[in-house]
Design a protein that fits this description.
The complex is a heterodimer of chains A (172) and B (302). With 172 residues, chain A is an alpha/beta fold. Chain A is built from five helices and seven strands; from the N terminus they run H-H-H-E-E-H-E-H-E-E-E-E. The chains are: A alpha/beta (172), B mainly alpha (302).
Chain lengths: 172, 302
Amino acid sequence: MVSAARAADPARARAVAAGVTDPELPMLTLADLGVLRGVRAAADGTVVVTITPTYSGCPALEAMRADLLTALRAAGFPRARVRTVLSPPWSSDWITPAGRRKLAEHGISPPGPARPAGGPVPLALLPTRTAARCPRCGSADTEELSRFGATACRALLRCRSCREPFEHVKEI
Amino acid sequence: MSGDSAYDALAQEHAGDARWAFGTGFTAPLAESAAGADAPVPPEVPAGDLALYCLMLGDDALVLAQRLIEWCTDAPELEEEVALANIALDLLGQARLLLTRAGRADGTGRDEDALAYFRDAGQFRNVRLVEAANGDFARSVARLLVFATWRLALFTRLTASADPALAAIAAKGVNELAYHRDYAAQWTLRLGRGTEESHRRLTAGLADVRPLLGELFAVHPVEERLSGLGAAVRPDTVHDEVAAVLERVRTAAGLDAPLLGAAPPPPPAAGESGRDGRHTGELTALLAEMQSVARAHPEAAW
C-alpha cells in the first residue's frame, strides 16, 4: 500500500536516495561521493532525483540511475525519475568527511584539495609529488605509479615504506 | 545498494525486452538541463552553426577515442593500456555530450547513436590529426600531446561560451584534458630522454604529426561566425599558448625541432579540411570498424 502522502514525502525519498551506494566505490553512498545534487517531489508526486557525473565518460552513471529507481520503488516510490546535470562540474572536494573516512578505512586514499577552478591549468612535466598517505601503514612517503587506475576517478600509488601499492581518488 | 548487484537492477529495468546487451541504452538522458546537453539554444546563437560546431568538437573526441582504444591489449605495459583506455573513455564521454547537443541544436532530433554510427566519412567534421593511424607508441604519444594541449586551450576558453551547454561540457572537460596533457607530456620526456631508439622514434612521430597541425588553427566560417557571438573560440587565438606549452615540453625532452613556429602553420585550402568533411582513407577504415555492429543490427539496444 502506497499512500499519496507517503509518495510525496521528499524527506524520506531523499533519505532513500542518499543511502544508495556507488557501483564502483561501494563503500560510499552517492551522498558521500557528492554526486547526489537533489531530491524533490514534483507536483504530480513523482520523485525527481538529480545526480551529476564524476567524469564525462563515467560508465557508472547508468548503474546509479537503475539503482536509484530500484531503491525508490522498493521504498514505496513507484514514480521516480533520475535527471543528470553537468553544471557546476563535480569536484573531488565534494566527497564528504564521512566519505573520506570510509575510503581510507577500505584502503583507498582520499583526494587532497582540488585545483581551484578557472585560470590556465599548469603543466606537470614530472610525476606529481603526492601528498597522499599510505592507507595501510600511514607513511607519507608515497609515489605515483599511474595516474589512471581501475576507474576514471582513481590513480595507482605505491608506499615507499611498506612497498604496498594502493589506490587514490584523484583530485579533480 | 546492499545485496543487489547493479546488473540485477539493469535487468529489471529491461524486463520484457529481450534485446538489451548492457545498460539502458545510449539514448539515456546524459544531461538534462542545469546546462546539460538538452538546454535550449540561446536565441542569439544560430542553431545550425552551433550544431555543426558541436559536431566538430564531438567528432574530434569520438575519432581519437576510437584510435586510443586500438591500444587495448597492444600497449607496452598494462598500466599504459589502462591509461589510454581511461583517456579514450573521457573523450568518448565528451563526444556523447557534444553529439547529443548537436542533435538537439540542429532540430533533427538525431541522438548520439544516429550521429556516431549512421554518418559516412564525408559527414564527419573532425580534424585529420585524430583520424591518422596510431603508428607506434611514440607517434601516438606525439599526437596525444598536441591534441590534448590544443583541446585544453580551446576548452578553457569555451567555459565562457554564450551557449550554456557548451560552457558546461567544456568546464567538465578541462580537468580531464589536463590529465591527458600531463600524461602525454611525461611520456614525451621519457621517450625523448630515454634511449637512442626511443628518441629517434619520438622524433619520427612528431615529424608525422607536424603536417597535420595547420588544420588545428585554421578558422572555419562556422567558428568565425559563432566566435563573433561569444559562442565559439577562434582556434587561431590559442596558437601562441599551444606553441608555448609544446616548446616547454620539447626543451625538457631534449628534442631538436619546434613543433610550432611564431605564427600558425599554413591552413589547408578553403573547403579542403577535415572540418569540411574532407578526410583520408584512414577515417573510412576506422568508421567501417566502429560502425559495423550498429549497422549490421540497427534495431539493437546496447
